[in-house]
Amino acid sequence: MSRIESIISELSSISNNPKKAMEDYKKETGKGSVGVMPYYAPEEIIHAAGFLPVGIWGGQKSISKARAYLPPFACSIMQSVMEMQLEGVYDDLEAVLFPVPCDTLKCLSQKWKGTSPVIVFTHPQNRKLEAANKFLAEEYRLVREKLEKILSVQISDEALNNSIEIYNENRKVMREFTDIAANYPNIIDPIKRHAIIKARFFMEKSKHTAMVKELNSELIALPVEAFTGKKVVLTGIMAEPNEVLDILKDNGFAVVADDLAQESRLFRNDVPSGTDPLYRLAKWWQEFDGCSLAVDTKKSRGPMLMDMVKVYKADAVVVCMMKFCDPEEFDYPIYYRQFEEAGIKSLFIEIDLETTSFEQTKTRVQSFSEML
Amino acid sequence: MTDTTNMMAKELLGFYQEELYEEARRAKKEGKLVCWSASVAPSELCVTMDIAMIYPETHAAGIGARKGALDMLEVADEKGYNLDTCSYARVNLGYMELLKEEALTGKTPEKLEKTPAARIPLPDLLITCNNICNTLLKWYENLAVELNIPLIIIDVPFNHTMPIPQYAKDYIAEQFKDAITQLEEICGKKFDYDKFLKVQEQTQRSVAQWNRVASLSSHKPSPLNCFDLFNYMALIVCARSKDYAEITFKKFADELEENLKNGIYAFKGSEQKRVTWEGIAVWPHLGHTFKGLKNLGNIMTGSAYPGLWNLSYTPGDMSSMAEAYTRIYINTCLDNKVKVLSDIISGGKCDGVVYHQNRSCKLMSFLNVETADMLQKENGLPYVSFDGDQTDPRNFAPAQFDTRVQALDEMMKQKEGVSNE
């Protein structure tokens, strides 16, 4: 097995088995894990406490127990997270960090069905004001206090600033990776690309950084290959289950860039420099744009996606629409119109973590591929 | 000028609603500014600046109640709005598209021509506030970009922990200041703080009369059916910073008190059971839901929804005003939400609760199971839930509603003698 293959295989296995990653971390450090709900929680604070931040993104699941607590029109990801709460999947977590940037998450933050303590905080949405930074830094101060109490640790400014640097390094390496991967679509297919990125949620970040860094340098040592398929940019919350990515791969699509909440949105900006770490983390939210969950009166997402299509010479945008996610559904008509006006092709596919039948997606992707 | 002195409350309600729309149309004609506003965004700011106001949620509810929603929903659908998103938003965004088309082509689209609701002008600016949902942020983002006009945002962060911390009030108060700066730029004139104080005082007088009306449902039998609040709500939304609301609510409260004195109650015959309605009205089927309860001898004496406009604060104190706009029960943690509803239920001396599982409103639906469970543990009262929608008529099944309220009625009657007094 080449070094490239073995790194990918290791990261894929981590991304497929978070439970084992948590157990390994405990064995190694003696410390537990803290859950991180979507979207955009400052997991650096958990890292600075020495605990493992673990991303909670649900999973492919049929929904039964959650039906008693959520109507069918709740988004697919939260249906699946609720189902897993009821199954006790998250009960090994020492705590769960819970941001509430949409109405669904506001409600869900009040009804955690697992046993772990939940720490809720609110992102401000009038983001460009300085007052918003102050507010969020204060929310983060309380998050830190609550974590310190639950985990019985002290989280110093120094440790936090250090964790921010570790995360920024990971963000930088991930941006490099997604750029490099775009040149090697035959090696880094959509599923591998996703697994390499997803492993971030279950690893101490400097370890993830080291592996991806090595992967990057192995990749760039290879000649850039000719690619005969089509290049696409993904946008949305996430592009799971893997069957969706399989379908893209089978139809000769390469993901050359993404604007997914589970992927690039997390690392396209660094946490800005400064001395007060909580203020720095707050400022990240102010500078972050192009996401349905971060209010933007200019709605820069459409123009941003069109830029990405240009920069990465993509053939189209694939809209991965999380079923029943209203913030994403509100963005769609605007950027769709902008795409139409600019002659940019796009394909709308529905993301449903409950589904096991992908025939519709397959047909849509096939006919789209013929159209391009 | 029309003489309003001898008008009954109901006439005043109709008169002032029409007057508000006329003011906006007149303003547009005269080249003055028109603002579209979220229903619980601070109206004080724009009213101080003499900006004519339109409230799309009320307008959308009006279209729905007059059976005109489907046409607008169809336009939104064609623009790519998912059927799963809020129907108020879709009705309004559909309406906006038609107005835009008319402005661009000079021709009135057929759907706009025949829509049953009052005609409203396109806005020159927007103001929104997320104290009743984050949908109002996304909806207004879209209006702003489609019309290329300024959007003022008052963001009131979800209060996951009560009481509301000072730093949250400070953040909101800072936004009031920023909104004032934006308004000064848009209007090209200074903000008049003396007038602002007067507008705040007016708002408080309107709110006081509104609360006076709402409190009358505590009488048993009740002179007020809270279904009436769904109608009168239009003025607490659209005119609370003007005397229109104060005059109308005062008249209405006077009438109800007079009725009470004379033994005239809201329920003709004798009220059997009293219910709390949790959630927004089903506007396209308002008559059906009203009659469904009435035919069983039941009256609505509790509703938390109109209480969203219980915006009492100290005029002149920005922090107090910030608190009033953020403490709305659906913008707070579950414990507080339950506490507010519990007071509504006991205040209305209710025997049961009806929960509207509203396809349009995730925020007012996704905690219903927990809310109902906690309240029942506390007060032992029966409850039912039904599926509906505030303005999309397709998401409501009259037969399901009837079956559910019948079941509630039976449960309430089984508890006969165990009244919640």
TrEMBL record, chain A:
Name of the protein: 2-hydroxyacyl-CoA dehydratase family protein
Keyword list, A-Z: Iron, Iron-sulfur, Metal-binding
Highest taxon in the source lineage: Bacteria
Cofactor: [4Fe-4S] cluster
InterPro entries named in the record: FldB/FldC_alpha/beta
Keyword Disulfide bond: no
Entry's family note: Belongs to the FldB/FldC dehydratase alpha/beta subunit family.
UniProtKB/TrEMBL annotation, chain B:
Keyword Iron: yes
InterPro entries assigned: FldB/FldC_alpha/beta
Gene3D superfamilies in the cross-refs: 3.40.50.11890, 3.40.50.11900
Keywords (A to Z) from UniProt: Iron, Iron-sulfur, Metal-binding
Record carries keyword Transcription regulation: no
Cofactor field: [4Fe-4S] cluster
Domain of life according to the entry: Bacteria
Family: Belongs to the FldB/FldC dehydratase alpha/beta subunit family.
Protein known as: 2-hydroxyacyl-CoA dehydratase family protein
Species of the source: Desulfosporosinus nitroreducens
